[in-house]
């Protein structure tokens, strides 16, 4: 399988590479486990991409989903927040800047 880089970032003391097969809608973000300000102790490392983060967060909250904080602009430009499932696993919800 041939993959290509979607995003190669080194913002805010973090470094990650997002890769996917050509034409795929799903991508993998690869990073070091000792990345500053990133904890993998409760998070599952799964990010979900949306084109309406505010609407999705409102819908989540209406259904009782625990949203960690209001969506905020990340240092790399995307808007994002975290939410938890009933078992306490955290997921990253992100709306790309472009």
TrEMBL record:
SUPFAM superfamilies: Glyoxalase/Bleomycin resistance protein/Dihydroxybiphenyl dioxygenase
Organism superkingdom: Bacteria
Gene3D superfamilies: 2,3-Dihydroxybiphenyl 1,2-Dioxygenase, domain 1
Domain Glyoxalase/fosfomycin resistance/dioxygenase span(s) in chain numbering: 28-91
Pfam families: Glyoxalase
Protein name: Glyoxalase/fosfomycin resistance/dioxygenase domain-containing protein
């Amino acid at each position: 399988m041939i993959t290509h880089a979607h995003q190669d970032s080194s913002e805010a003391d973090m470094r990650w590479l997002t890769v996917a097969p050509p034409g795929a809608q799903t991508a993998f973000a690869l990073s070091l486990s000792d990345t500053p300000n990133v904890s993998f102790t409760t998070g599952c490392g799964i990010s979900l991409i949306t084109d309406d983060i505010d609407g999705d967060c409102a819908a989540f909250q209406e259904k009782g989903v625990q949203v960690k904080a209001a969506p905020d602009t990340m240092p790399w430009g995307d808007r994002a927040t975290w939410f938890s499932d009933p078992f306490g696993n955290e997921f990253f919800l992100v709306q790309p800047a472009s």
